[in-house]
Amino acid sequence: VAWGATTVVVRCSRLASSPTTRTLQYQLLGAFVWLGLAALLTDQTSIRFTPLVVASLGFQVLVVSFASFLIWFTLLRRYPASRLGVLSFMTPLFGIGFGVWLLHEPLEPNFIFGALLVLAGIVMVSGYEWLRQRFKRNRESPVAPRSS
Fold it and tell me: Which DSSP state fits 142?
């Protein structure tokens, strides 16, 4: 819901015409304030820095929060949100796929079945216009008469 609301706000407010870096700045500043407040309210403010924690935090800050949002907001200015929504649906598939590839986690039949359903849904929704044009073209093409 929050991701969708963010997309709507970016597309329907003055942010739609502001630079991508400004949109990213507002997004990250807002997340910092809200998550900092949530951490204070839930008493989750202590941290023990280890090399793994620092590496994980660095990845989250640089790749997830900075690079991916910058790319997302840039794409959002160039393409309709409905077409970009496909990327959101693909996120869990990429996550599991990279877990199998990089972490050697087992690939379960339930995931494969679920992934095929997600992909079928994406093709049906996103490929609707292409499929409609293709079937329309097939119906309009004249059929050669059969010789007897």
Answer: P
Whether the CB-CB separation of 21 and 71 falls below 8 Å is answered with no
pLDDT tens for each residue of 92-114: 888 888 889 989 999 889 989 98
Distance CA 62, CA 47 (A): 19
Q: For 50-65, how does the pLDDT look when each residue is reduced to its tens digit (9 = 90+)? A: 999 999 999 998 988 8
pTM of this structure: 0.57
Sign of CA dihedral 89, 95, 100, 101: positive
DSSP 28-96: HHHHHHHHHHHHHHTT-------HHHHHHHHHIIIIIIIIIHHHHHHHHHHS-HHHHHHHHHHHHHHHH
Among the listed residues 43, 127, 51, 40, the one whose alpha carbon sits nearest the alpha carbon of residue 82: 127
